[in-house]
Amino acid sequence: MQCRPVHLYVRALIMSLIIPYSRMQLARPRMLGQAVAHERQRAVHRGWLNPFWIKTTVAIALSDLPMPDIQLRLGFSPYLFNTQDKELILRVEDWVDLSRQLLDFRGRWQAQRRRRPHRNA
After folding, report:
1. What is the rounded distance in angstroms from the CA atom of residue 82 to the CA atom of residue 60?
2. Domain that residue 65 falls in
């Protein structure tokens, strides 16, 4: 995962994803167990995920999912997206640092958009 000037770049094993800052509404810390309904997970998954349920993630609320739900499920971990709430769930070592980076890059992107002349002017 990497913050870039106009989007967030997320790379998985077989796919990568670009999420424009325009789709991001809110980034907040959440425990994985809050972001993903762990009680709805299969018992076999719950066992090996137990240590992770209390880990802090950054949940980024999106105005829209970056691709259809079926493509997200095929190309990415089921724990990367909460499709019901339209959230991107990122497990990182330092969630404070990621939150700061997102605020900084998104703020610069917004400032640049405000400085551009309007096309209809």
Report:
1. 10
2. 2-115
Residue 7 lies in a domain: yes
Please tell me the distance from the alpha carbon of residue 17 to that of residue 72, in angstroms, as a whole number. Answer: 10
Domains held by the chain: number? 1
Burial class of residue 35 in the structure, from the number of CB atoms within 10 Å of its CB (0-12 exposed, 13-18 middle, 19+ buried)? buried
Q: Does residue 92 lie in a domain region?
A: yes
Residues 6+ apart with CB under 8 A from 100: none
Asked whether residue 39 is assigned to any structural domain, the reply reads yes
Question: Which residue has tokens 């209390």?
Answer: 54
| Binned average pLDDT, 10 residues per bin, the chain of 121 residues | 92 88 90 73 69 82 90 85 87 88 92 77 48
